[in-house]
């Protein structure tokens, strides 16, 4: 990539020719209004479907069917309760939280460990291991999904661990999530660990810190910005994952939120409670919205920055 | 520091490598292996059929039509997304008011970015719930309701959107191969663009901001208009970012199964009558198709062919768009 220099050059350039200034100024105002109109139109195109769908969760089914564009006569919150209990959204939500607590923690730990060793310790086969991880970035998940199902099923049976890491187990899904998050996490953190200065690490090891202590007490704190970016990326990615749980979690009480909601949506013609479906969607959107509100800069720079490496 | 180096490296790599090899690499390798067999997914007894599954792919009319659909997505989706993202990034960064310090970004540009990027973080389930209802083919759908209230659509004849299998171009048949662009597919592309523009806008916008201001000042002093500045200065400097976006969108266009599964009718999506089927969605459906006893192996062969096509495409695009001379600034 082209090296980007963030030199905020002081605007000490010669002042613009005075005769040209008023013309430029007027052109500037026109361009400004022009820009805002186009940006606002796209902003509305993005937000209107979202807001419209959220509003549906406060309506009665009669209003949803016969007055799709109107606001609710009365803002009802009952659909949220029905979605949480009868629509199983509450159960799906808790399943997702449990799995993500394990999978994001392990992804970060294992990803950082592998990336750190590969970035800072030259050894024979280092590049091979690194490229093995990165190769996973080029292959889509669905390509391995059919044998993955068999593998999870057969391996857990062979080990006698069906109830622990087999199909329909939280731990089984956690391990799969961690494995599929490795390529990007290792790739991202590898680049990050390489940029950290070596002097502090050297000083610490002179002071007698071992490899493990050096990693946890010196390098991990220094890598915090990188860990936060990739952590958020993994939270969003794993929260939104639907193909892996669709194949691996068939028991209705073990389903993930995205998977469960998608099944509710695709069976919507049998659905008699539309408000409940929209309320379920709103509930599913809230955690992501919260993360996005809190960390949108890191989300934006993390997701797009990674594209360019 | 010297002592304990090897055990440390091995200890730190063991768990990540083990998980990755077992759950990611082995399934990929087994996909390649099963594609050469007549394995049905259950029976432990199966035989080798060589490239038989691959030859049968060339006779599978739905698959051949799905390739055509991917080709349509591949043409429309990246071009429209990149053009819109470039346009809005330009509006955000250079469309702002000029003052003594040069041309600045418009006010509220981070709010715009916040809104535009948001669909990118939504799961396919949320997108499916929203857009199924927006596109619904009766007066309960958002677009139909709006158009009906404006009198643009007859209440008796609502637009079908996701249920419309008619092609917007005259279908082209070449032997078993079909190229058509059903309305439902166009609707999916629209949703993909809705979700994707914000991402590439942020990408291009960051790139534009990294271009030093003095280049713009020099151009302005030389009397260049904003439009000239964009085409002569900004765009050439963004070349590399656009080519990366092109490759990513190309890969996404060959993927595309999430929207098909989430939004279109039929078991596993792809309907109506396979009008929205793309290669990956047809692969997932085929694996458990009852009309084929060896559907599993057949689907594996299909997966391999998609992976091959994707790599070929990425390679071609990479060669086509790679900048020969790199601009350093």
From TrEMBL, chain A:
BP GO annotations: transmembrane transport
PROSITE patterns: ABC_TM1
Listed transmembrane segments: 33-55, 92-118, 130-151, 171-193, 214-236, 274-295
Keyword annotations from UniProtKB, A to Z: Cell membrane, Membrane, Transmembrane, Transmembrane helix, Transport
Keyword Membrane in record: yes
Domain of life: Bacteria
Main localization (coarse): membrane
Coiled coil: none
SUPFAM superfamilies, A to Z: MetI-like (SSF161098)
Keyword Cytoplasm: no
GO cellular component: plasma membrane
Membrane topology: Multi-pass membrane protein
Family: Belongs to the binding-protein-dependent transport system permease family.
Protein name (Swiss-Prot/TrEMBL): Sugar ABC transporter permease
UniProtKB/TrEMBL annotation, chain B:
PROSITE patterns: ABC_TM1
Positions in coiled-coil regions: none
Membrane topology: Multi-pass membrane protein
GO BP of this protein: transmembrane transport
Location (main, coarse): membrane
Sequence ranges assigned to domain ABC transmembrane type-1 in this UniProt record: 67-317
Family: Belongs to the binding-protein-dependent transport system permease family.
Name the UniProt record assigns to this protein: Sugar ABC transporter permease
